[in-house]
Write a structure and sequence with these properties.
Elements (H helix, E strand, L loop, with lengths): L1 E3 L5 E2 L19 E2 L1 H11 L3 H8 E5 L6 E5 L12 E2 L2 E2 L7 H5 L2 E7 L6 E7 L13 E2 L1 H7 L3 H20 L6 H11 L2 H11 L19 H17 L7
Antiparallel strand pairs: 1-9, 2-10, 3-5, 4-5, 6-7, 8-9
Helix pairs in contact: 1-2, 5-8, 6-8
The structure holds iron/sulfur cluster (SF4) (2 copies).
Length: 242
């Protein structure tokens, strides 16, 4: 990986014409974010529990002890992604953020000066990937725009804020109950919807920016509330106070 300044152009293109077509969709250790899961379960018309059961594995995050989700690859076939076909990706329009971002890695941090989230980029150059030999020059932001990453980044940055707070404030992994609640809110959105329908939301949750009437059908609004709920339940803070 080499550092890439935000305004530094690089050359890259990927298509079904490249000799390495599909090579990057095997030998996978593919993390899924809550928003990735939301998109993929809708793609297949599954509930979040059904999607998690059919396509993923749950692990313990090595640094935080929080639950993390990976796509379950085909162990009998070079750890291929379950969604790769000879014609390419069968979930292309809803592919995960990491697939969209490649060959860039994006890290975020909160500036101690402005309190705003800032980005850093790295270019991932792997020997098998021939995409660097072709295509136009572009910057990281142009690439992210081309890959429709705006909504993915906005949602994933919320998750990163939670993980970063856990690292700073908690002394170890969550207990069993906290682990279950975190998994439900972040990954099993349909179960979270049921939980909120039964138990309601805490009175102090800052939901002014979300139309709660859309909850029954709007998974994006629900996931935004789930992130707020995790912040409130686990850290006692509201989003606006971070
Ligand atoms: S989701 Fe699609 S692009 Fe991503 S690894 Fe699987 S087949 Fe490849
Ligand atoms: S060019 Fe790179 S990203 Fe595209 S198919 Fe080949 S290995 Fe994958």
């Amino acid at each position: 990986m080499t550092p890439l300044a935000a305004d530094e152009p690089f050359q890259f293109a990927c298509s079904s014409q490249v000799p390495c077509f599909n090579d990057c969709c095997q030998d996978l250790n593919q993390f899924l974010t809550p928003y990735d899961i939301l998109r993929l379960k809708k793609h297949f018309g599954l509930t979040s529990a059904q999607f998690l059961e059919q396509y993923t594995s749950q692990h313990i995050g090595p640094e935080t002890g929080l639950p993390i989700i990976t796509l379950r690859p085909d162990y009998a076939a070079d750890l291929k992604c379950p969604f790769v076909t000879s014609h390419g990706c069968r979930v292309y329009e809803d592919r995960p953020a990491s697939c969209r971002m490649y060959p860039i890695a994006r890290a975020i941090f909160r500036s101690p000066l402005t309190g705003q989230i800032e980005e850093q980029f790295m270019l991932i150059k792997e020997p098998h990937c021939r995409g660097f030999e072709q295509g136009p020059q572009m910057t990281a932001h142009e690439w992210m725009q081309q890959q429709d990453l705006t909504i993915y980044n906005a949602m994933n940055d919320r998750m990163m804020t939670i993980i970063s707070l856990w690292r700073q404030q908690k002394q170890g992994p969550p207990d069993l109950k906290a682990n279950r609640m975190f998994s439900m809110a972040c990954y099993d959105l349909d179960a979270f919807r049921q939980y909120i329908n039964t138990n309601g939301l805490p009175n102090n949750l800052d939901t002014q920016d979300i139309d709660l009437k859309t909850f029954p059908t709007d998974d994006i609004a629900l996931l935004k509330v789930a992130f707020k709920w995790v912040l409130y339940e686990f850290f006692g803070v509201t989003e606006s106070k971070i």
